[in-house]
Design goal:
This protein is an alpha+beta fold and 170 residues long. It is 37% helix and 14% strand. It folds into two domains: 91 residues, no CATH class; 71 residues. Strand 1 and strand 2 form a beta hairpin. The longest helix has 18 residues.
Length: 170
């Protein structure tokens, strides 16, 4: 089964179409669809805008798709196939390190798509100041705290970040 060419971009919660071809530049339009060419190993996923989703429908075969959400473009997320439609969830953000988890939580907080979901965790007026606090704590950790000590130095912000990322604090 042929796969089109895609340019991988850094996963930073900024969903962009990765369509690429020998005749055009990287599309980079806001992505609306997340497709899995192969949802199991080797995992092969692409973010697509509407026009390129149509192009894929005409020319290629993919295994699964769902509307793109912020989680689709976050590091450490996994394709969840046990629900219909499938969706991407934060699978494991512990490999991001402490500062990385704080930043990931801030990115999720600032994303309006996630707000209804997060309303059970954070009241709306607290979202921006909370995201600011998580980011400044992350910057401070990177600047002055050895990675091995970050989890201990930032235990409380990390507990908050894990709630936002949808993980239990055990
Ligand atoms: Zn596109
Ligand atoms: Zn996804």
């Amino acid at each position: 089964m042929p796969f089109p060419d895609f340019t991988p971009t850094d996963r930073i919660g900024n969903m962009r179409c990765g369509w690429d071809s020998t005749t055009s530049e990287l599309c980079n339009a806001p992505a609306t669809w997340h497709i899995a060419w192969n949802p199991t190993n080797p995992l092969k996923l692409s973010l697509l805008c509407d026009p390129h989703m149509n192009a894929v429908n005409h020319h290629y075969t993919y295994a699964d798709r769902h509307p793109a959400t912020i989680a689709c473009d976050m590091p450490g997320t996994g394709w969840l196939t046990t629900v219909t439609p499938s969706r991407c969830i934060p699978a494991d953000t512990t490999d991001l390190g402490s500062a990385g988890q704080l930043r990931a939580a801030a990115v999720l907080l600032r994303n309006p798509v996630r707000r209804p979901e997060l309303a059970s965790v954070v009241d709306l007026p607290f979202i921006e100041p909370l995201a600011d606090w998580l980011e400044s704590t992350a910057a401070q950790l990177d600047a002055i705290t050895h990675p091995l000590w970050q989890a201990m130095a930032a235990a409380q912000p990390l507990a908050v970040a894990r709630q936002i990322l949808g993980k239990d604090t055990s």
